[in-house]
Amino acid sequence: MGDTTPFLKIRNLTKMFGTFTALKDISLNVNEGEFICFLGPSGCGKTTFLRAIAGLDIQTAGTIEQAGKDISPLPPSERDFGIVFQSYALFPNLTVNRNIAYGLENAGKSKKAIKARVAELLEMVGLSDQGDKYPAQLSGGQQQRIALARALATSPGLLLLDEPLSALDAKVRTFLRHEIKDLQAKLGITTVMVTHDQEEALTMADRIVVMDHGTIEQVGTPLEIYREPATLFVADFIGEMNQLPATAVNNTSTKVGDIELVCNEHTIAQGQSGILTIRPEDVVPHGKGARSPGAKDPIKTPQNTFDVTIKEMEFLGSFWRASLTSKKLHDHELIADFSINAVSRMALKEGGTIKVELPEQALRFYAADN
Amino acid sequence: MVDVPINTAHLGPTIKPKTGRDAWIMRAFIVVIGLYLVITLAFPLYAMLSKSFNTYAFDLSRYEIQVNTGTGWGDPITVEDLNEAVKKYKPEDLKTSSDGRLPIVEMIDGFSFRSKTLYRLRNTTKGSAYLVGSERITDTQWHEYTSNEFRRVFLKPVVATGLDNFVQYFSNPSLFNSIYNSLFIAIVSMVITITLAFTFAYAMARSKMRFKGAFKVIAMAPILVPSLLPGIALVYLFGNQGMLKVLMGDQTIYGPIGIIAGSVFFTFPHAMIIIQTSLSISDARLYEASDALGASKIKTFFTVTLPGARYGLISAAFVVFNLVITDFGLPKVIGGQFNVLAVDIYKQVIGQQNFEMGAVVSVVLLIPAMFAFAIDRIVQKKQVSTLTARSVPYEPKVNRRFDNIMFTYSAVVAGLIVTVLAVCQFAALIKFWPYDLTLSLVNYDFDVMDGGGWGSFTNSIKLGFMVAFIGTVVVFVGAYMVEKVPAFGLGRSAFQFLAMLPMAIPGMVLGLAYIFFFNDPANPLNGIYGTMAILVICSITHFYTVSHLTALTALKQMDKEFESVSASLKQPFYKLFTRVTVPVCLPAILDISIYLFVNAMTTVSALIFLYSPDTTLASVAMLNMDDAGDIAPAAAMGMMIFYANSIARIIHHFASKGLYTKTQAWRTR
């Protein structure tokens, strides 16, 4: 973040509902022009966090600064943001034009200027010909874009999106992800989006804030979140992940069943148990007795390599998902994704035995429970 | 989730949210409308409650008297000693009501107003008083009177607080028997109405019979008439000179039979609409499942239909109970010697001028009414959760035999309702039943009868419009503010409580409470007593709860984020209110106004105590004409109310439809 002041500076935010703590001592910086996603399971506090930033549910303690100004106690009407809700909250009795113009009135603008601005916004969201319709006459995706246009009408400094895509069907959702992302990039508006859909967060966000139980688990770029999950919760929540009970041997090595596996550096004391994780697509098949193509020593088998039996194979279109077992793993099942190519090249099939490698950099070891 | 409070020691100071301008304005509205409810509901009720504990008695020891028979002034003695000497009043004779006055000359042997004897009288303590004519003497000076003046001297009672009134009430069988009577008619009417209404609602929801629309319109008609109208019809049918008197055998219609029959008539639509709602929201999938499992029709009825409608049934039962036990007009007209609580209040207040005893009966009547209200509220809350978004509405299939049975039943019920109305209309047009059966409009010549003439009809229309307009504005604005104001938890709960309370207060009780509160000369609002304003205020308060709930239901159906969006766009709440909330809620707003109009037109109970010669009302005139023996004109007036309400309903219907197509275009895709 360097020495530039962040656009949003959130410090020690706590929100209590009675005795229930919805947000626990949260701090976060958001830079100007950044697209941030709050990601987490339902009840994790992500919506509460967004509503605190909007001033709709003001925090119990802690401060929020926006553009250098402390906005902590201010009601929504005295803050600077536009918001889109999951329900869109379009005014049903007003036409699309009137909906978008709603925030432009009483601001000293001429009727002509308002009309021009509405036309510009409609053009921007690609619905120029829909201005005279009522919201109920539009499709879900169109309503969503009108809500976006309305939120952007007053050119706010901050755009808040509360699960804006979750009421739409899959195709429209994918399309709108790109639309919103492009629009955001074009306008350069700082955006905070709440979602429970990890795919949405991974494809749209500059940075993702993973939350659970009212706390931040990890803040990072989509790649960081996916490749280097900071906690077992993040590892489990994002994507598919094998979780194998293991014991620490030393700070770069663990033991699963009878197999010792070299892994990323960890801080768990020797002899303590934990969970060793690897993503299914990181499991490397070597066929029957084949050598690792990249192995330096062609004779010696690469490290973290052992025999497994293919218990089951499931065809998932672009790849095969296999469940692998091994006596040495004490019958812990290992899920692996193999490319169609690899399966046909190595003639993998159910009941067969192969060697697999669990690459060191793909293995992460976490304390068992948090 | 973690439910343990976290250690807050290291946290910064608690943020105190700033209350924005909108929030202040909304709070101000809540406070103003809340104050309205406090003044028009809480204060009067308090005045009534405290009145019920007030006892009045003449305290003779507080007066001194001196007599001069022409031979100079005798020694002053207390009036108490005077009474001892002549043995005139026994202690129980000295108990009285607030209005009581004791003629002092009764205690003077051989008093003649022509005699030359002079008298002196004084209050020995502050707080006692006596009247000379209409002049009230409260000082402790001696005042001298001639015999002629002295005959116009009356002692006034002093007030004390205690349970005496209640003791007196419960030691008088002719009073407390009314409790049994009221409970009896309420429970019997409840059982009969619920049975009839359930069957009718079942026919509407579960059969494919014809003329459902017409049946529904007829079934709702009793709402449009005062509760005493069926009483008048019953008198014409089964009264002493009734058309069908023979059917009564040696029973009389004047008493419980008449009250119950009339109660079933006027409570029927209320029960029917509640039960029909609960039947219509039942889930078709349950019936399919029951069918698939091979259950018989009877079994399905008892395992699916009845349990599904149970909340509606319970709710309807208590609504009927409450309506009957608090109703005044019907038992007044047809109750005969059969006393019920609501009529007792009237008799105590209007007949005997015993306001304290009226207050006691009111307190007694409040108990079952509050109880029924509380149960209804609990049940209503449970009802909400029975319908899920996935439920499939039940679509009845054609079943000739079943449909025919249901049609016959519904036709009989509708026929009975129409008969009651037709009998009244017929009675109104007959010159003099049963002696002169020529048709004439003589009974419409209200101006020559008791009750205020045609003026009372126009007053009622005026009242209806004022209550509908002012009431709708107050109720809807109040409901909006309380639903949408940010924070302000305590203010909201207090307001909600006040808004729910009127439902539990019987009209007679509210009316009497208004006398105590507004007729008190010390009340700065005393000026509205006897005006149209107090009738409007009383009616709005009396019918506040149902209107408030209707408004809340409509408001809750709106997206709760509208306010958030509007605030984020820096627009004041009143812009959202006028541009979005009111237009979207217009159907509900119209429903509230017609509800208020119809009820203001038909209510008797609360307003019977409050009208003045300038503000007589149609429904009250009906009662007074009936009281004076002018039954046919009473029936004529009742039908005028019916027609006025019917026209209002029809206008409401078309207004709703017109507005619907004009402003609710967005509802159709």
Mind explaining what this structure looks like?
The complex is a heterodimer of chains A (370) and B (669). Helices cover 23% and strands 32% of the residues of chain A. With 370 residues, chain A is of the alpha+beta class. In chain A, a hairpin with an 8-residue loop joins β17 and β18. The longest helix of chain A is centred in the middle third of the chain and has 18 residues, at 170-187. Chain B has 669 residues and is of the alpha+beta class. Chain B has 3 domains: 55-161, no CATH class; 182-337 and 381-440, Orthogonal Bundle (MetI-like fold), CATH 1.10.3720.10; 461-611, MetI-like fold (Orthogonal Bundle). Chain B has helices at residues 21-52, 79-86, 147-150, 164-170, 173-206, 212-220, 228-238, 256-280, 284-292, 297-326, 329-334, 341-351, 355-383, 400-429, 453-484, 489-500, 507-518, 532-542, 544-556, 562-568, 573-602, 618-627, 631-663; strands at residues 54-57, 63-68, 77-78, 95-96, 102-103, 118-123, 130-132, 135-137, 143-146, 153-155, 158-161, 430-432, 436-439. Chain B is globular, with a radius of gyration of 30 Å. The two termini of chain B are 42 Å apart. Chains A and B meet through β1, β2 and β4 of A and α1, α20 and α21 of B.
Strand-helix topology:
The complex is a heterodimer of chains A (about 375) and B (about 675).
Chain A lengths: L7 E10 L2 E11 L4 E5 L6 H9 L6 E6 L2 E2 L11 E3 L11 H6 L9 H14 L15 H13 L5 E5 L7 H18 L2 E6 L2 H7 L2 E6 L2 E6 L1 H6 L4 H6 L4 E9 L2 E4 L2 E4 L10 E6 L5 E2 L19 E11 L3 E7 L8 E6 H7 L6 E5 L6 E4 L3
Parallel strand pairs in A: 3-8, 3-9, 6-7, 7-8
Antiparallel strand pairs in A: 1-2, 1-4, 4-5, 9-10, 11-12, 11-14, 12-13, 14-20, 15-19, 16-17, 16-19, 17-18
Chain B lengths: L20 H32 L1 E4 L5 E6 L8 E2 H8 L8 E2 L5 E2 L14 E6 L6 E3 L2 E3 L5 E4 H4 L2 E3 L2 E4 L2 H7 L2 H34 L5 H9 L7 H11 L17 H25 L3 H9 L4 H30 L2 H6 L6 H11 L3 H29 L16 H30 E3 L3 E4 L13 H32 L4 H12 L6 H12 L13 H11 L1 H13 L5 H7 L4 H30 L15 H10 L3 H33 L6
Antiparallel strand pairs in B: 1-4, 1-11, 2-3, 2-6, 5-10, 6-9, 7-8, 7-10, 12-13
Helix pairs in contact in B: 1-13, 1-15, 1-16, 1-17, 5-8, 5-10, 5-14, 7-8, 7-14, 7-23, 8-10, 10-13, 12-13, 13-17, 14-23, 15-18, 15-19, 15-21, 15-22, 19-21, 21-23, 22-23
